[in-house]
Amino acid sequence: MPRSIHPREHAGTAVEITQGLDTAFSHLTIGQPAVILVLEGSKTLRWTEGSLEIQAGEAVAIAAGSALDISNHPSASGQYRAQWVVFDTTLCEAFPATDPTLQEIRPCLSLSRFDASPRESFDRALTALRDESLPISVIQCRLQELLAWIAHRGARFATAGHATLTMRLRKLLAPRLSHAWTAPEAARELSLSEASLRRILAREGNSFSGLLRDARLEFALTLVQASELPIETIAMEVGYDSASRFSGRFRERFGVTPSQLRGHARAIERNGAEVDRIG
Predict the structure, then answer these.
(1) Of 100, 129, 157, at which residue does a domain stop?
(2) Which CATH number goes with the domain that contains 192?
(3) Tens digit of pLDDT for each residue in 109-161?
């Protein structure tokens, strides 16, 4: 399975990850609601109140704004592979799941093994997001079908309610991570004074510079795992004009350089291809 990432505005994003290292990433913030299907290897999710182990063939739903420690573990063959269907937040909020007995997904919920029908729905949503010829309205219908299966399982994604300033700021920064953001500019965009921005963020346990750094590096992590973009291009995409400086910051945050994270998986892919040719 090749790495790939296919965003569609007002609908969501299809993500396919291949990784060869056993990794542990601390305090990753999930920006939008998502369903992750593990194809090979396993995934561990931890948060303050609990944890989940997701095995190959199992899926998990994660709410927007969730801060998790995430570990990906390769299988005996040496690969971790997963597919993500990421939903536009407004699509989930508009979904007519009015049953008051539905469990709100906070921060995540194991969907266990997908049987044939929900797995087909997941695959249709993934395929639709990849297909640039489809109109957004059709893609949204495919994603809503997957939301309906989650509701059938007795759950729904939590509505945003009163968004924290941290969440509002992340939403502001996300479309333009390469921009040279400053705290005064971000404050103006959010109709706040700079002093108010910094004070409220501090109350929420964040700082402007720390939040901007994390938003950039977390998106860079996705691009390293789910695209074939050169490391230099990824660095520029997230606001770094030096690939070496970017790689250093990436290693400080995640404990591994971008090339190590990607290169190990590529070595495994090459070895696998060689076995296929010999076999």
Answers:
(1) 157
(2) 1.10.10.60
(3) 999 888 888 999 999 999 999 999 999 999 999 999 999 999 998 999 976 65
